[in-house]
Structures are given as C-alpha cells and as structure tokens.
C-alpha cells in the first residue's frame, strides 16, 4: 500500500467518524479487530518502496506501509465451501488450539477460547502443563524480555526522519529500576530540541521505545504515517517530530515546557505481556507541563496487528487530537468539558 492508499484508508476512517459526529457514545463504531485465536495469524505484507517523509508533499517517494495481506482472504474466498468445511471442522480447530482432550462441549469451548487471547482450555499432562503450552509460554516470555531490552531499528528512525535524543538514563537496567530518570531529558537533549524543533506547534509528535522496542519496530511506520495524514487532512499543523531513547510517558512534560505545543502525542512501547510483546500506546495531553497530573493525560493502548490495527489507530488519533483542541483539554478535563 502506498501513500495514496493510506490516505484513502485514513479519509475513509475520518469520514466514518465524522458521520457519527465522534460523539463519545458513537466512537465505538471504529473498526477494531480483535485477535481470534482459533484462526491463523493474519499475514503482514511489506510493500517496500523507497524511504518516505510523511509530512512532505513534494516527495515522490512512496511510503513503506505494512498491511494485512488481503491475498490470503481472497484465496480463502475462492476455496469451495466444502473444502472449507473440511478444513474448519471443530475437531480440527480443537486439535490445533485446544489442549483438552475429548471436551464434553467442544463448540462452547471453542467459542470461549476465541473470545480471549488468555491461556484457557490448554489442558494438562498429569499435574503439569503440556510441553507445547510450556514452550509457547517460554517463547512469549523470551519475546517480552527481548522487547524490553532490545533497541529500535535505526533504519526505521532514519526512514521517518526522526532524530534521537536521550533521557537521563543510558543503561536499560537503570531505566527499569528508575522510572523517574526516564521522565527527564538529558541536558544535550534539551539543547538539541531547542536548536532543531519548531516552537509552539499545534501538535508535537514524539516517538519513544519505552518498555518495548519491538512495538516501535512493528507499528510505528503505519501509525505515524496515518496520524500525519489524519492531522493534515484536518488542517492541523505538526511540529518537528523526534525519538526519545528510553523514555517514560511523563517525559512529555519536559518537552511541553521546552517547545510549548498545544497537544503532545507520544507514541511509546507498552510494557509487554505474555500475549503481545509488540503493543504500542499513544499517550495524549493538552499543554503538558512539569507538574501535569496523570488524570489530564489520556491513552489509546493495544495498537498492534492483533489489537487496534496501526493504520486505523493513526487515523483515529487524529480525531482525538481534534477533539482535544476543540475543548482545550485532555483526560478527565476533556470528559468534563464534553459533558
Ligand atoms: C503499568 C500500567 C499501570 C501502572 C503504571 C505504573 C508504572 N510506572 O508502570 C499502574 C498500576 C499505576 C496503572 C494505573 C492505572 N492504569 Co494502567 N496500565 C499499565 C499497563 C499495564 C502498561 C502501561 C505502559 O506500559 N505504559 C508505557 C510506559 C513506558 O509508561 P511509564 O511511563 O512507565 O508509566 C506511565 C504509564 O503507564 C501511565 N499509565 C498507566 N496506566 C494509565 C492509564 C491512563 C488512563 C493514563 C492516562 C496513563 C496511564 O502512567 C505511568 C506513570 O506516568 C497498561 C496496559 C497496556 N497495554 O498499555 C495499563 C493501562 C494503560 N492502564 C489503564 C488504566 C485504566 C489505569 C488506571 C486508570 C486504573 C485505575 N482505575 O486506577 C490507573 C491510572 C494511572 C495513571 N497514571 O493515571 C488502562 C487504560 C485504558 C484506557 N484506554 O484509558 C490500560 C490500557 C489497561 C487496560 N487494558 O485497561 N497502570
């Protein structure tokens, strides 16, 4: 999918939201796909094209955007329904995804398992988990550790034209033990931001690895591009984006003091769980400053291919920014003003 297609998807989502007036009770219309553990993982395709600059129209470069592979869906459609019946019998699904042997109510069990990514219906071998379950657990745990200790792919940051700054911490162990250091910019970082960034933009986008570098590697291109397009299509100007190495959510307060944006959108890696190690969050705040209270922030979490799809998340975030600007408030303040 190229820039035009992302623009199309972003516009579709925006128009769907404006049809519903993005009222609180109607925002649930946003298409959110939940992970179905009874089906194979959606394939992700990478239509790689030259590097892109999301906020520069003049560029002829095509963006790199990963999307679900519709080909698998089409191929699936083409299969005869009898083939499908053969492949998708409950027995097959049970064998592939459920550890309980000869369940009394297989359909109900399958139904429950499909409702949650939690490890239910896994069965056991004597008193212990089955080998497959145990290995999967070990695998997911290792992925979580890798996500916390890993580093964001420099190529992605280059592609998105994000320069990097550091917080007061450069060691991951210290980062984990001292969240307060991750909330403060280093002195060099402050100088660099002063030199390089536009002051008082309407929106300041910040990217940070936070607790999952994988979350950035896997999702940032799509979220960033569609967020940029969503804001652009609403005529909202964006400041100079950058990457904060080993940041915490409240680091946005120092950025707010320095650059004085109206709204900060911080795209940051979430603490990995044993279901997904690559989940991204967007924390938003109206005029964050040192001393901002948590209730004035808001978060859209669970952005990854098994949660809120990144392109949709970006488009949706643009509409949240619009709302924050309209009410000049975020978090609890926004809810109160909105009534
Ligand atoms: C860890 C965590 C916490 C920890 C944060 C402490 C810490 N330093 O790590 C604790 C237990 C304190 C916590 C509390 C709450 N949390 Co919490 N939390 C998470 C979790 C598991 C990971 C967050 C993360 O990795 N952030 C990124 C790292 C880098 O951030 P950080 O700087 O280290 O820590 C900051 C953030 O974690 C932030 N934060 C944590 N939770 C929330 C919730 C909201 C609404 C906001 C604005 C900020 C926020 O506060 C920390 C200090 O600044 C997410 C689940 C997820 N999938 O994201 C839920 C999650 C973000 N929390 C949630 C909620 C509802 C809350 C509470 C409102 C619960 C309550 N009723 O009290 C409070 C609000 C706290 C606040 N700061 O305002 C929801 C948010 C739902 C939503 N979309 O609004 C989530 C998505 C869980 C869920 N699925 O329901 N949380």
Automatic annotation (TrEMBL):
UniProt entry keywords in alphabetical sequence: Bacterial microcompartment, Cobalamin, Cobalt, Lyase
Write down the EC number.
4.3.1.7
- Write down a Pfam family by its short name: EutC
This enzyme catalyses: ethanolamine = acetaldehyde + NH4(+)
Q: What terms describe the molecular function in GO for this protein?
A: cobalamin binding; ethanolamine ammonia-lyase activity
Biological-process GO terms, alphabetical: amino acid metabolic process; ethanolamine catabolic process
Its UniProt pathway annotation is:
Amine and polyamine degradation; ethanolamine degradation
What is the free-text note on the cofactor?
Answer: Binds between the large and small subunits.
Compartments where found: Bacterial microcompartment
Q: Name the predominant localization.
A: other
One term under GO cellular component: ethanolamine ammonia-lyase complex
> Which positions does UniProt annotate for adenosylcob(III)alamin binding?
249, 270
Annotated spans, Disordered: 37-65
UniProt superkingdom: Bacteria
Q: Which InterPro entries match?
A: EutC, EutC_C, EutC_N
Cofactor(s) the protein needs: adenosylcob(III)alamin
Q: How does it assemble?
A: The basic unit is a heterodimer which dimerizes to form tetramers. The heterotetramers trimerize; 6 large subunits form a core ring with 6 small subunits projecting outwards.
Give the protein's biological function.
Catalyzes the deamination of various vicinal amino-alcohols to oxo compounds. Allows this organism to utilize ethanolamine as the sole source of nitrogen and carbon in the presence of external vitamin B12.
Alphabetized HAMAP family for the sequence: EutC
Its family remark reads: Belongs to the EutC family.
Q: What is this protein called?
A: Ethanolamine ammonia-lyase small subunit
Q: What is the originating organism of this protein?
A: Pueribacillus theae
């Amino acid at each position: 999918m190229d820039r035009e297609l992302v623009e199309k998807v972003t516009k579709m989502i925006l128009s769907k939201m404006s049809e519903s007036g993005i009222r609180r009770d109607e925002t649930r219309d946003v298409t959110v796909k939940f992970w179905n553990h009874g089906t194979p993982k959606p394939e992700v395709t990478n239509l790689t094209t030259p590097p892109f600059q999301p906020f520069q129209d003049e560029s002829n470069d095509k963006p790199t955007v990963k999307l679900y592979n519709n080909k698998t869906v089409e191929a699936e459609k083409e299969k005869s329904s009898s083939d499908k019946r053969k492949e998708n019998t409950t027995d097959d699904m049970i064998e592939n995804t459920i550890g309980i042997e000869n369940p009394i109510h297989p359909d109900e069990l399958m139904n429950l398992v499909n409702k949650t990514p939690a490890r239910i219906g896994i069965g056991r071998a004597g008193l212990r988990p089955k080998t497959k379950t145990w290995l999967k657990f070990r695998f997911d745990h290792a992925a979580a550790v890798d996500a916390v200790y890993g580093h964001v792919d420099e190529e992605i940051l280059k592609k998105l034209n994000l320069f990097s700054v550091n917080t007061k911490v450069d060691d991951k162990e210290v980062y984990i033990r001292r969240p307060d250091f991750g909330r403060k910019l280093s002195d060099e970082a402050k100088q660099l931001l002063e030199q390089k960034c536009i002051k008082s933009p309407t929106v300041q986008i910040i990217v940070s690895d936070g607790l999952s570098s994988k979350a950035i590697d896997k999702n940032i291109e799509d979220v960033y591009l569609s967020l940029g397009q969503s804001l652009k299509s609403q005529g909202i100007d964006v400041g100079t984006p950058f990457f904060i190495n080993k940041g915490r959510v409240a680091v946005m307060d120092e950025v707010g003091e320095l650059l004085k944006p109206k709204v900060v959108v911080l795209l940051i890696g979430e603490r990995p769980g044993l279901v997904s190690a690559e989940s991204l969050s967007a924390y938003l705040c109206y005029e964050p400053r040192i001393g901002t209270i948590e209730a004035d922030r808001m978060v859209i979490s669970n952005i990854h291919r098994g949660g809120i799809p990144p392109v949709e998340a970006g488009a949706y975030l643009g509409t949240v920014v619009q709302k924050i600007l309209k009410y000049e408030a975020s978090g609890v303040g926004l809810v109160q003003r909105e009534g």
